[in-house]
Design brief:
The complex is a heterodimer of chains A (162) and B (115).
Chain A: E1 2-4, E2 7-12, E3 15-19, E4 23-25, E5 30-34, H1 41-53, E6 60-64, H2 69-82, H3 91-103, E7 111-116, E8 131-136, E9 146-154, E10 157-161
Chain B: E1 8-11, H1 22-29, H2 33-47, H3 62-75, E2 80-84, H4 92-104, E3 108-112
Parallel strand pairs in B: 1-2, 2-3
Helix pairs in contact in B: 2-3, 3-4
The chains are: A alpha/beta (162), B alpha/beta (115).
Amino acid sequence: MISLPAGKRDIWPGFALSWKNPLSFQMGKSYYLKGDNGSGKSSFIHSVLLPALSGRKDLYVLCLQQQMHLQIYALRAQAAIFRPGFAIRSEEDVWRYLWQDLASRQDELPVYVVADEAHSLDIPQDIQRPICLIYSSHRYQLPETHILDFVQVSPQETVIHA
Amino acid sequence: MDLKKSYLIADGQYPLVCTDLVHDEIILYNLDKEAQARLFAEFERITAKKIDRESKLEALSGGQKVVLMALLALLSPALRIEFVHLTHSLDQDKASQILDLIRQSSKEIVLRESS
């Protein structure tokens, strides 16, 4: 589990995110980042959440970017070397490739799946390792998901209600 | 979509070509001064965020980039536009406002939600 202490984070000059209670992300659960365009969901992912997860040797982070054309190019290049024949043309292919890569690893480390406006949230049934899913989407919300509501209180600040 | 005609294709999964300034995208879409003024006004009306030619594109959220792409296409001289994945990254309010602008447009517009 990771926990982000309550506080206020300056994201860039003139915009901050704040939350009044610690934000905890537990294995076996999903968390829906809910909010309008521009409310700071992607900023939260990139400036707060991913830095808190990076560098950890005891977990994996599977991250899907919002506009992922650069990620598609990068994984296409990696697949060309390590998985020749695995065609990566779409976000769905990236999702499938990353899960297959994870399934091939001989450990049971947990994985944080961070999906910023992902097309697909279908986690393969045969994945045995613990998973925590953190996602934003304007299309769907999974059942029994914990909601983190991004409410813009001013152009300069968004408050996250958990 | 008539394959014998030329369309400006605007894909919400790849909304912006440039990485630096709004000005760069304006040049790509060939917007005249009147269209630029309308672009800034419509963008602020829809997103409540002010931009100008010198605004950094990296300061926009993913959804705001899609709004900007849609407005650039609608205000460009292109006669025919195909929008792909237009509303995928947009909240309901912004999607509704963009679709209203599309309905009001005199251009020939095709909407496609899948690749």
